[in-house]
Amino acid sequence: MIAGFFKKIVVVMVAASLTLATGAPAAEINLPDLGSPADAVLSKNAEAQLGRAIMRQIRASGQLVEDPQITEYVNDIGHRIAAQANFDGNHEFTFFVVDDPTINAFALPGGFIGVHTGLLDATRNEDELAGVLAHEVAHVTQRHIARAIHASQRRSILSTAMMLGVVLASVAGGLDGDAMQGAIAVTQGTAAQGQINFTRSNEYEADRVGISALADSGFDPQGMASFFEVISRNTSPSQSRIPAFLQTHPVSSARIAETRARARDYAPVHTTDSVNYGIAKVRLEVAGKRTPEAAVEYYERERYEFQSDTERYGRALAYMRDGRYREANRIFEELANREPEVIAYHIGLADSQLELELIAEAIESYERARNLFPRNMPLVIHYAEALLKLGQAELAHEMLLDLLNNAPPTPQQIRLIARAAIEAGENAEANYYMAEYRFMIGDLVGGVNFLRRALQVPELEEIQRIRFEARIDFVRDFMTEEQLQQMQMSRSIG
C-alpha cells in the first residue's frame, strides 16, 4: 500500500519545506509580499521545487502507473480543465495516476495532481472524474498550500513544515484517522485543529472554483457533486475504514447540497463519455487482475456478441496478457476497422501482430496509425518499443527525437529515448537524455553528473560539448548551496 510510503516522504517534505520556504535561518526571514501573502512564505518557484522533490519520491516508490495511454488520457482531461481555471497562466500542471485501490486524489505543490486507480474505477462517468480533477486543480490555482503556511505564521517554520507534511501525506496516501491525528499531535498539539479547519474551508473554495472550470470546459458541472454523493451514500458510518477521499476531503450533506446548487447556476449540459474514458478504465481493470486467467475470466462472463466495443477491447487485452495473441488480434482488427478514429485499437492491432511475428503487418499497422495520428505520444512509445525489439534502434531514436522536439515529454519518454540512443551507439546523447530525465524528476545533481559523463565521451563533437556545458551552467543557477556542494563533492570523488 502506498500509504506507508507517503508516511516516509513526510521527512523529505519537511526538509524541502524548510529549505524552500526560508533559504536562510528563521530569524533572517524578510521576504517581500509581491501581491499575495502566500508568495511571502512560499513562492511559486519554491512550490514547484517542493513538488518535484515529492514526485521524485513517488516515482522511486514504484507506485506510479506508467501506461502511456492512461497517462495521456488523464493529462488530456486535466489540462482541458486547467485551461479554464488557470486564468493568469502562472501554473503548470502534471497529472498522474498512482497504483492504489483506495478512492483518493490529491494535489501537490507545483501543480502535480495525482489520482488513485481506485478513484478512477469508482467514477461512474467522465463528468465525475473531471469533477474530481477540477476540485484538485482549484487547490493549486488558489494557492491553498502556500496559504495554509501563511495562515499559520505564528507557529515556527519547522512546525508549519511538519504540519504541511502530515496533511499532504494523508491527502496522498489516505492515512487512517488515528495515524494522522497522532502525527499532528507530535507536531503542534492544540494548534493542529486550526490548520485542519483552514484546509477544510479551502474545500468549499475548491468546489466553487472547480465547478466554474468544469462548466467552462464542457463537462457537466453536476459531476463533482454526483461523485461526492455516490461515495458518501455508499459509505456506512459503521464501516471500519472510510474511503480516503472522504477523510481528506470531508463531505457533508450541506456541502453536497451547496455544490449541487452552484452547479445549477450553469446551463444544463448533456455529455457522453469519451471512448478513451472507457479504455483507460479497461486497461486498469485488466492490469489489476491478479492473474492472466482472472482477467480472461472477467471479460468472458458475457457473450462476445452482447459486449460493447470497450468491453471487447478489454477482452482482447486480457487475451494478450494470457498469451492468446491470435484471438486478441482478431478482436483488435475488427475494432480498428469499425472505429478507425480510436488510437488504442490501432496500437492493440500492431502489438498483437508483433507478438504473432507478423513483422511486416505490424510495421504497416504502426505506420498507418502514425499517418492518422502524427506525433501521438502513446502510439510513438509503443512503436518505438517495437522497433527496439526488432533491432531498429536508429529509427526508434529518430522517431522519439521528433516527438521530443514537438511535444512536452514525459519521464517515461525520456528514458525510452535514452535507451534508443544507447542501442544506436549514440553514447553522448544517451547521457544527455538521462540527464534530462534526472532533471525532470527533480534530481539536479544527478542530471549534471550525467552531463559530465557525456562530456567525457571520446567521439564527442564540438557542438555537443557546447550544448552540454551550456546546460550545466543553466542548471547550476537553480541549485541550492547544498546541491552545489554535493555537485562539487561528486566531482572530487569522480
The rounded distance between the terminal residues' Cα atoms is 38 Å
How many strands appear in the DSSP assignment? 3
Number of distinct helices = 26
Strand order of the largest sheet: 1-3-2
User: What are the segments in which pLDDT stays under 50 over at least 5 consecutive residues?
Assistant: 1-35, 174-198
Proportion in β-strands: under 5%
Structural class: mainly alpha
The overall average pLDDT, rounded, is 81
Biggest pleated sheet: 3 strands, mixed
What form results from the Cα inertia axes?
flat
Helix content: 55-70%
Radius of gyration: 24 Å
Give the ordered list of helices and strands: HHHHEEEHHHHHHHHHHHHHHHHHHHHHH
List the helices and strands and how they pair.
Elements: H1 2-22, H2 37-41, H3 44-61, H4 68-85, E1 94-98, E2 105-108, E3 112-116, H5 117-122, H6 126-141, H7 144-151, H8 157-173, H9 177-188, H10 192-216, H11 223-233, H12 244-248, H13 253-263, H14 275-288, H15 292-299, H16 309-321, H17 325-338, H18 343-355, H19 359-372, H20 377-389, H21 393-404, H22 411-423, H23 427-440, H24 444-455, H25 462-476, H26 481-493
Parallel strand pairs: 1-3
Antiparallel strand pairs: 2-3
Helix pairs in contact: 1-3, 1-8, 4-6, 4-10, 6-10, 6-11, 8-9, 10-13, 11-13, 14-16, 15-16, 16-17, 17-18, 18-19, 18-20, 20-21, 20-22, 21-22, 22-23, 23-24, 24-25, 24-26
